[in-house]
């Protein structure tokens, strides 16, 4: 299975479309959208964007980001692609995630408590724990890692995302949110990927055969 993961698209749908067209020639099985598809966009905008990605004929799975309005949950559910607080198993791979980001002084459109983040993660996990491989898709990165540090040097990730990863050890974690913290890290055996800004042509590739391989691309 070859998975392309995008976060922080912020309306740059043509850029993602171009990447999908190019990468499809190398093999494509699942498209993951890890949040901030829009910047406070409408449901119609989100539906239109997802339909552009669906034309490649592969499942599009999504969580919303902190800059997406909460109403986009309805959009992702309607297209059968939501993995917020729920799981989907495709082949041997289980996908589950958490929308939004922790409460902050910024008061962005979609923020939730750490308690709610943990609840959603555990609910989704319970739906995929039988899968051979498990990929966790929280928009917010885990706290105190290489992938949650802002330019000022502070770690601003989710403590609940970190706690969950430490306890459950999913195989891979696809996140975004902190644009300047694109990169990789590990927590136990879990591989953490902050995909970076898709609007700048950045994304991640997860390839699963007998092993799981990850790379940042773009």
Give an overview of the whole structure.
The chain is α/β, with parallel strands linked by helices. It has a single domain, classed as Metallo-dependent phosphatases (Purple Acid Phosphatase, chain A, domain 2, 4-Layer Sandwich). The chain contains five helices and 13 strands. Strands 4-5-8-9-11-10 form a six-stranded mixed β-sheet, covered by helices on one side. It has a five-stranded mixed β-sheet with strand order 3-2-1-12-13, covered by helices on one side. A hairpin with a 2-residue loop joins strand 4 and strand 5. Helix 2 packs parallel to helix 3 and helix 4 packs parallel to helix 5. The chain is globular. It starts with a strand and ends with a strand.
Which parts are unreliable, with pLDDT below 50 for 5 consecutive residues or more? Answer: none
Outline type: globular
Q: Quickly name the level 1 CATH class.
A: Alpha Beta
Q: Could you give a short account of the major beta sheet? A: 6 strands, mixed
Sequence of secondary-structure elements: EHEHEHEEEEHEHEEEEE
- How big is the Rg? 15 Å
CATH homologous superfamily, by name? Answer: Metallo-dependent phosphatases
- The CATH topology is given as Purple Acid Phosphatase, chain A, domain 2
Kindly report the average pLDDT value.
Answer: 97
The share of residues in extended strands comes to 25-35%
How many domains?
1
